[in-house]
Amino acid sequence: SGDSGNLKDSMMEIFMAETNDFLGKIEALLMQSEQAGEGIRSATPEIFRIMHTIKSSSAMMSLENISRLTHRVEDLFYFLREHPDVAVDEGKLVDIVLEVVDFIKRNLDGQQQEDASPLAGKIDALLIDLTDRKKADDVPSAPPTAVATEATPPPHDQAAAPETDAPPHARHHTHNLCVHKDDQMRDLRTL
């Protein structure tokens, strides 16, 4: 049992060192993108990759609060990567990323399991806003001379499944994370 304790301690030390390095890279990316006048969107692929890595390794270390939070950030940057045409408030995005970095630093050693829900809620709200903007951008506008007519429902065999306004990560979170991730990625790809 002593060997397993030493192994776990060694793994935690490696996890903490690697995660601190990743957090430093995120902070450097934010500063570089600001100095270059490019905005945080230029760092989207790197931030996505780093958050994916932290998500996986924190789950392995049973740091569920960090894993769930970084999953949300990963979702946000996945959306930004896949939809570069959707405008985002750069200041709000930078603030959220810095809040996440600070949260991870406070919870990194596993000694405290701070509730990530308030910060996750901010991420969800931003992603819902971006998703709504994407949907609004995708709705073709009617020609100015078009006359409004009452919509006719499609025949029964062509009826579409009802859509929900909220992306999958903003819905119920008690189901299996793998199923959740598959559903979410499929929903985001259909935007």
Number of helices: 6
> Proportion of β residues?
under 5%
Instruction: Profile the largest sheet.
Output: none
Shape: elongated
> How many whole angstroms does the radius of gyration measure?
20 Å
**Count of β-strands:** 0
The unreliable regions are: 152-182
Order of helices and strands: HHHHHH
Helix content: 55-70%
- Average pLDDT confidence is 79
Span of the ends, CA to CA:
50 Å
Task: Tell me the structural class.
Answer: mainly alpha
Q: How are the elements arranged and paired?
A:
Layout: H1 2-35, H2 44-60, H3 64-82, H4 90-107, H5 117-138, H6 177-189
Helix pairs in contact: 1-2, 1-4, 2-3, 3-4, 3-5, 4-5
Structure explained in plain terms:
By secondary structure, the chain is an all-alpha fold. It has six helices and no strands. Helix 2 (44-60) packs antiparallel against helix 3. It is elongated, with a radius of gyration of 20 Å. The termini are far apart.
